[in-house]
């Protein structure tokens, strides 16, 4: 290892101790603020909450001043590297598998904060199930550690086609982490799981707390509690655009996971995935990418950065990651290779749903909110060619290609040919064309309860009268063996010549798709939509690929007065109850020309 001349290296047994003085440099602090809380509804009226804090890799200021408690130092033994941050946090990273435990090479094997151990002594904190199990027939993982300079330490874990970094900054009680990989690991996900004994960190997300479960409801990860509620790690989810950090607390401690701009992730601004589980351990899980409910390919060779931050209980005030540019990280993209995108107008989009501008290509993804004046700006974009998508709520209504240039602000042209179904004249409509089912029956609980939870209202609605009942009385989800067929009744005072029945869905599972009988006329069979292949509705997400099914109605089918539409779910696949084929409803209407 190479050290600067003013540092003194001491050898003590198997330990190498670096003695240095603490020198904190403070910059402006920016608030870390989430837009939605876990285990609650963020859409009581079908509208999203606005995200009040835009995300950028460079946005965060320096954290509050930490009193130095010990020298900033790297120690080495035969079994592990030990890093003392000088801010009350001492971390050990395992160099080899620890016999008699599930702690493997590259795992965090100890996290002591103010002298209290917060790492499970038998299971490591690690990527997936361990660095030696990421790829078939991979070579054993290796670990190295070194000083980058007197203020920074870097630990590198090489594991097959994935490289994981643990990074430490003098005087900051945090483990900065980063990953890059050229091939998706087993089992089709990349996530870092932090394992803290539950009694040390008991206060997590209630909906993912399973310590008092009495039976399994579904698979191996959804449980009924002693009070009848159904909890799961999946119900700790939030839309990516709605959170910056999450964590749990205990006596005089808070442990928080803070994300980057998620440019190397997959799924876009509305993607949901688990974050926490309270069992024998309080598990904090950072998802880099995840196969469950995924709507797009994974991104390779893009650096993903996230931070585990320790406090005395309160959420962290801010975080500076600008120094990462000096750490020699693979696939780090510097500021001079990034640009900005500005957008200044939105025309012809009916309704007042929140608007989101998103960018994506094979390398990266970004998003930003469009304000009430129609303006948006997205910063720190890796230079390249992207598809820009305009979302109304969560429904894509327009796209265009754009090139983002390094060190320049690119102005996005106004979108043309917006496809906003809400603007079409309708005989009647239930729901909003916004890519979400949250305005319907049980819509406020879909993401943090199992459909069978007793707190849900009865899903089985046999009849629905359009114009007399509210959207809140129509089921957000329809299943083949739970609540269909359902009869929709409506009255017409006029009958148009050319009309279409449109059924919009946000997601479907097990091949579910709509079939209709309108006043005795059977609508044409619809093809199966392209959707995620995993569970969705029961694991807290309605997000799939928005699809509109169109039925062209013959002229003699509709009639003056009473009409009846019978709606069913069809599929070539089988299933029982809430695992039977089905779909999530976006909106249903009859439009005419």
UniProtKB/TrEMBL annotation:
Pfam families: CBM-like, fn3_3, RhgB_N. Keywords: Signal. Residues 74-330 form the Rhamnogalacturonase B N-terminal domain. Transmembrane segments: none annotated. GO terms for biological process: pectin catabolic process. Residues 1-31 form the signal peptide. InterPro entries: Gal_mutarotase_sf_dom (IPR011013), Galactose-bd-like_sf (IPR008979), GH-type_carb-bd (IPR014718), RG-lyase_II (IPR029413), RG-lyase_III (IPR029411), Rhamnogalacturonase_B (IPR016590), RhgB_N (IPR015364). It comes from the Bacteria. GO terms for molecular function: carbohydrate binding; carbon-oxygen lyase activity, acting on polysaccharides. Residues 358-412, 427-589 form the Rhamnogalacturonan lyase domain. PANTHER family: RHAMNOGALACTURONATE LYASE-RELATED. This is Rhamnogalacturonan endolyase. It comes from Acinetobacter nectaris CIP 110549.
């Amino acid at each position: 290892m190479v050290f600067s001349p003013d540092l003194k290296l001491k050898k003590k047994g198997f330990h190498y101790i670096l003695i240095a003085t603490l020198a904190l440099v403070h910059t402006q602090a920016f608030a870390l603020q989430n837009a939605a809380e876990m285990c609650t509804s963020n859409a009581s009226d079908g509208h999203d909450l606005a995200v009040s804090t835009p995300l950028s890799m460079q946005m965060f200021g320096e954290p509050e001043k930490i009193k130095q408690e010990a020298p900033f130092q790297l120690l080495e033994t035969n079994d592990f590297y030990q890093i003392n941050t000088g801010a009350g946090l001492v971390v050990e990273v395992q160099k080899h598998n620890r016999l008699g435990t599930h702690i493997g090479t590259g795992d965090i094997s100890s996290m002591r904060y103010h002298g209290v151990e917060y790492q499970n002594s038998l299971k490591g904190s690690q990527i997936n199930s361990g660095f030696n199990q990421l790829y078939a027939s991979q070579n054993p993982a290796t670990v190295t550690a070194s000083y980058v300079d007197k203020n920074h330490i870097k630990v590198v874990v090489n594991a097959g086609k994935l490289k994981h970094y643990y990074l430490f900054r003098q005087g900051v009680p945090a483990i900065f982490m980063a990953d890059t990989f050229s091939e998706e690991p087993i089992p089709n996900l990349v996530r870092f799981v932090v394992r803290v004994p539950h009694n040390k960190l008991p206060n997590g997300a209630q909906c993912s707390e399973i310590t008092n479960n009495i039976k399994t409801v579904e698979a191996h990860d959804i449980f009924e509690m002693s009070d009848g509620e159904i909890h799961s790690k999946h119900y700790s989810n939030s839309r990516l655009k709605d959170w910056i950090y999450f964590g749990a607390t205990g006596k005089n401690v808070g442990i928080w996971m803070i994300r980057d701009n998620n440019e190397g992730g997959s799924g876009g601004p509305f993607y949901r995935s688990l974050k926490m589980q309270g069992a024998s351990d309080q598990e904090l899980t950072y998802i880099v990418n995840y196969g469950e409910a995924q709507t797009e390919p994974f991104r390779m060779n893009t650096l993903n950065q996230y931070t585990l931050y320790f406090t005395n209980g309160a959420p962290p005030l801010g975080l500076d990651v600008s120094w990462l540019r000096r750490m020699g990280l693979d696939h780090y993209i510097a500021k001079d290779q990034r640009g900005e995108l500005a957008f200044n107008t939105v025309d012809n989009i009916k309704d007042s749903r929140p608007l989101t501008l998103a960018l994506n290509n094979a390398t990266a993804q970004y998003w930003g909110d469009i304000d009430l004046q129609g303006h948006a700006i997205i910063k720190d974009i890796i230079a390249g060619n992207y598809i820009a998508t305009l979302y109304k709520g969560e429904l894509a209504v327009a796209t265009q290609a754009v090139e983002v240039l390094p060190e320049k602000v690119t102005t996005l042209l106004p979108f043309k040919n917006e496809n906003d179904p809400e603007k079409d004249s309708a005989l009647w409509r239930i729901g909003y064309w916004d890519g979400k089912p949250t305005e319907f029956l049980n819509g406020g609980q879909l993401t943090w309860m199992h459909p069978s939870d007793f707190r849900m209202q009865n899903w089985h609605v046999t009849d629905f009268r359009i114009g007399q009942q509210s959207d809140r009385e129509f089921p957000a989800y329809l299943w083949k063996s739970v609540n269909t067929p359902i009869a929709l009744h409506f009255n017409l005072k006029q009958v148009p010549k050319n009309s279409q029945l449109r059924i919009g869905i946000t997601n479907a599972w097990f091949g579910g798709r709509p079939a209709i009988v309108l006043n005795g006329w059977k609508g044409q069979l619809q093809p199966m939509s392209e959707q995620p292949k995993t569970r969705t509705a029961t694991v807290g997400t309605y997000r799939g690929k928005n699809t509109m099914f169109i039925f062209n109605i013959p002229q003699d089918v509709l009639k003056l007065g009473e009409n009846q539409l019978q709606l069913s779910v069809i599929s070539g696949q089988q299933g029982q109850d809430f695992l039977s084929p089905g779909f999530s409803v976006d909106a249903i209407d009859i439009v005419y020309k």
